[in-house]
Write a structure and sequence with these properties.
Serum Albumin, Chain A, Domain 1; globular; mainly alpha; 3-stranded antiparallel β-sheet; two-stranded antiparallel ribbon
């Protein structure tokens, strides 16, 4: 065979073999836009964003644990291995299908605002933070958003060139003590475990305690986001915990968190009460009272915290029942979007086509306007859930979407049933951003 023909033949074969991959990376079958193949199992599976957390969940299932046991174990691991997302200082929301009772259970384990932070005090401090930040930003023309030297006075404003514009505007800062609410995650673990758990909580938390003490390798993506957190080094305790040697750990570096290991060990031994009523509650109360911390949480806030079992809300989308937790969470927004999108032929538009993306983006705008106006703490507001989740209301909102033009401004829907009490404003201000500790799931068959 001609010597020069061999390389050409090899190149041709490579080209022919590579053709099926052109549309979807290295996939030769399945959905062209998918980047991973399905996980197929007979007895159980776990899905998380971190391979070690998934492995921990699978080990719990193999040890005879329930799906909820596995989810708690993975959740604890993610709080350690992905601190950029959340942790035991955050909240928890869960929807659990119980095969024995053939019923969906929903748990809202979000924390409430501190007793000591009144609405007037919040507005005053938020305005001070906004004004301080605005002055600092105006002096730095090279950046549209700047950070001031005092971590408790960090805020973002829409126009850093004008101090006057924020004189009457109160924004809850992204960082600092003002947005902090009672952490509900730990109570959520024990509520779920009391109802659906099988293994002892000490066994469930043991893998994360071990990894926190002995260390775990930091993954590439988390290392990237972790480095962005170096700007928070001015907060008490942050650098000592998350910035060993003064900087964020790099990809592949083994990170240890002995303080978290000790905390989880106390929770494993003493239960939820050690966190909300005992030694850990005392430690958090003392920390929050420090002048350089300035947090409003006190032991009373921890002692009176309780999670709430609620009825999930649902809609039917093209024959599928989709379930979410009602406000104060944002799950209802997803249902509102589905109700609106049901009136469009998305398949005919083509996946990720201009029309497809435009329709979804406009739908989100409509739902988010309602979210900003009507979603609140149900203890302080009468939320028109039935109206917002109705197909008729979706049809009304759908008419506002122009298939040829993006909407610059959409009003919130006119929902006459809304009846907000004046105290609603307290919860609306305190809970603008959630720190959900829900980035994992586990499933065991034939029952939970």
């Amino acid at each position: 065979m001609n010597e020069t023909a061999c390389p050409l033949l090899a190149l041709s074969l490579c080209f022919l073999v590579s053709l099926p991959f052109a549309a979807g990376g290295d996939r030769v079958t399945g959905r062209f836009f998918a980047t991973r193949s399905e996980v197929i199992a007979q007895h159980g599976m776990a899905c998380t964003s971190h391979p070690l957390a998934t492995q921990i969940a699978l080990d719990v299932l193999k040890a005879g644990g329930s799906a909820v046991d596995a989810a708690i174990a993975a959740d604890a691991a993610l709080g350690l291995m992905e601190p950029t997302g959340s942790g035991i200082g955050g909240d928890l929301f869960a929807i659990v299908w119980d095969a024995k009772t053939a019923r969906l259970y929903a748990l809202n384990a979000s924390g409430r605002s501190p007793y000591g932070l009144t609405l007037d005090e919040l507005r005053k401090r938020a305005k001070q933070a906004a004004l301080s930040s605005n002055v600092a930003q105006a002096s730095n023309a090279s950046s549209s958003v700047a950070q001031v030297s005092n971590p408790s006075s960090v805020a973002q404003v829409s126009n850093p060139s004008s101090v006057a514009q924020v004189s009457n505007l109160c924004l809850v800062p992204d960082f600092g003590p003002l947005p902090v609410s009672v952490p509900g995650c730990v109570d959520g673990w024990f509520e779920l475990h009391n109802r659906f758990g099988k293994l002892p909580m000490a066994d469930i938390l043991a893998p994360t305690i071990r990894y926190a003490r002995d260390g775990f390798p930091v993954t590439e993506l988390i290392a990237y986001y972790w480095a962005a957190g170096e700007k928070l080094k001015g907060y008490p305790g942050f650098a000592a915990t998350f910035l060993p040697n003064g900087k964020a750990p790099a990809k592949g570096e083994v990170h240890r968190n002995p303080m978290l290991a000790a905390t989880l060990a106390k929770i494993a031994a003493g239960g939820r009460d050690v966190f909300y009523k005992g030694e850990l509650a005392d430690a958090m109360d003392a920390f929050c009272r420090r002048e350089d911390v300035g947090c409003f949480l006190r032991k009373r806030d921890f002692e009176e915290h309780a999670s709430t079992w609620v009825d999930p809300v649902s809609t039917n989308y093209r024959g599928y029942d989709v379930w979410e937790i009602m406000p104060n969470t944002q799950g209802l927004a997803a249902l509102q979007m589905l109700n609106i999108l049901e009136g469009f032929d998305l398949k005919a538009m083509g996946h990720n086509s201009a029309a497809y993306l435009h329709t979804q983006l406009e739908t989100k705008k409509l739902a988010y306007e309602d979210r900003a106006r009507y979603y609140a703490d149900p203890e302080f507001a009468k939320i028109p859930i039935e109206k917002l989740n109705s197909k008729d209301y979706a049809a009304e909102r759908r008419k506002l979407i122009n298939p040829k033009r993006a909407g610059r401004v959409f009003p919130a829907g006119d929902v006459a049933a809304a009846d907000f009490e004046s105290s609603f404003a307290i919860r609306h201000w305190i809970f603008p951003v959630w720190l959900p500790q829900t980035a994992c799931s586990a499933k065991a068959t034939p029952s939970t």
